[in-house]
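Notes, p. 3: input format for complexes.
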Amino acid sequence: MDDLKAKWLQLIGAAGDESALEDLRVQAVGKKGEVSLKMRELGKMTPEERQIAGPALNALKDEINAALAAKKAALGDAALDERLRSEWLDVTLPGRTRRAGTIHPVSQVWEECTAIFADMGFAVAEGPQVEDDWYNFDALNIPSHHPARAEMDTFYMHRAAGDNRPPHVLRTHTSPVQIRSMQAEGAPIRTISPGRVYRADYDQTHTPMFHQVEGLAIDRDISMANLKWCLEEFFSAYFGTAVKTRFRASHFPFTEPSAEVDIQCAWEGGTVKVGEGDDWLEVLGSGMVHPKVLQAGGIDPAAWQGFAFGMGIDRIAMLKYGIPDLRAFFDSDLRWLRHYGFSALQVPTLRGGV
Ligand code: DAH
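Output follows (354 residues plus 3,4-dihydroxyphenylalanine):
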């Protein structure tokens, strides 16, 4: 009995995994296992022998079962330990950072303009960048012989011989959106139209593609005074300080009268400060919408009137954020973008000051 016990306990102790343990269980205490066969021999024994062997075999069976259970638990623990060891993860390690992209200053200023004008009741209107030349010129009172057409260094779209669609251009300004908005909405109307525009020109202050924002307000009794208020309100919100404006008489075919607008500034050590001093910086063109332009937009000039303006987005971005060279805006130089770009979380709002 002692040999039997020593043998099985030793085998169980040495079992390497759960299936080896199960084999041992079958061989020792299974139906035809060694201990079970021994128990069957009890029947052939004398009652005296049986009284000793019976309880001893039962005790042996219990011991073997207990050893099997203990070993099974130990094997389970070892497997868990191994999993914990191999799947171990240090959650306190710092994460691998990925550089987030930045919002381009043009996009930022575009959003700032939209937020400020939206607060004054202007909705955003957009138009195509490849524009019918009627919208870009004729409807804006710039007939074909007009010198303004030549001055704008227009990119014309190629037309194959026999193609008799109207001539198209890359729009030279956002003003054609005025006509499209008037046609779509009629009067009264209050829209701004930020967008890309194109001219064949390239130097430190000109790039072939740049950005403008157009403004249009039409109602029964809109005047130059409303224009001046809107613009001063805009510049003060945009630059975060009270900004004086100066209106200079000018000429645009699409407005009558027309004015170029300067904002107050000071030059300090080669940099410009808006809203201080007594220098002036030209920032936009504006005026009262010409009756012919209202007509082209399907609005009766006898009943309605209004103002319009057009401003360079890139230019006011340079002024606000101290960016010296326009061309760098469109170089896609990552160092420049990281320096001048904005976090995606810096959403322009009027409350926080834009
Ligand atoms: N379209 C003009 C330009 O590109 C700017 C402009 C001037 C727009 C006067 C206007 C305006 O709406 O009234 O230079």
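The mean pLDDT is 92.
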